[in-house]
Amino acid sequence: MIRVLVADDEPLIRAGIRMILTSADDIDVVAEAGNGREAVDLVRAHTVDVALLDIQMPVLDGLSALAELRRAAPSVRPLILTTFGERENVLRALSHGGAGFLLKDSAPGELIQAVRAAAAGDAYLSPAATRHVVDSLASGQAAARAEAARRRLESLSARELEVLALLGEGLSNADAGERIHVSEATVKTYVSRILTKLECENRVQAALLARDAGLGTAP
Question: Where is the Response regulatory domain (predicted)?
């Protein structure tokens, strides 16, 4: 079972999220918090695999709670859930080690998919947030970022570059495997090597680096 903590200051939102998540037979909501401070305390008190954190909460907001969780409970995979898709929030979530960023208007199935991806060690960025980040990062200092990204990619083999390009397109391990005719497990091995070589904390950071370098530019 994937053990989840849900943190949101609105009880009705928490109830709705709990209903969606517990409809999956492999997910259990083990704790609920009304603010970020309570979320951090509950993670310390419970065994939690994934922490679903709203950004705008009293006492301690979701991004600040995320930063504390990464220090206090590094094994917990934090997912940011919000109605706001601004570039700054997404980038802060990723830079603090968040396992993904999900908008509140996402479909129920996407919420379950994001929790499963986070629990599996992958990162999940909602399609709307992905487009927003990529479009934002495409403007301003693009040439400098591209050159720096290409230098970082010099350590990768041709096959690893191919897999990284597919990450840049937003493909899952399974879809990437189908594209290059290898197993999902083989792709996962390549992704692990890529993250180590590039010193990226998660696949979303690697995907953004690929985009900066001009890889994975398919729509």
Answer: 3-119
pLDDT score of 218: 44
Q: How many CB atoms lie within 10 A of CB 113?
A: 18
CB–CB of 215/204 below 8 Å? no
Q: Which residue has the tokens 């930063």?
A: 67
Q: What is the pTM of this model?
A: 0.63
| pLDDT score recorded for residue 25 | 95
Give the number of other CB atoms < 10 A from CB of residue 109: 11
Which DSSP letter does residue 153 get?
G
Neighbours of 183 (CB within 10 A): 12
Task: Please tell me whether residue 161 adopts helix, strand or coil conformation.
Answer: helix
Round to whole Å and give the CA distance between 170 and 205: 11
Specify whether the CB–CB gap between 69 and 78 falls below 8 A.
yes
Those residues with Cβ within 8 angstroms of residue 11's Cβ, 6 or more apart along the chain or in another chain? 34
pLDDT of residue 207: 87
Q: What is the pLDDT of residue 182?
A: 95
Q: Quickly tell me which residue has 């305390």 as its tokens.
A: 41
Task: Report the distance separating Cα 170 and Cα 26, nearest Å.
Answer: 25
C-alpha 108/C-alpha 29 separation (Å) is 15
Residue 109 makes CB contacts below 8 A (sequence gap 6+) with: none
In 3D space, the residue among 197, 199, 160, 195 whose CA is nearest the CA of residue 180 turns out to be 160
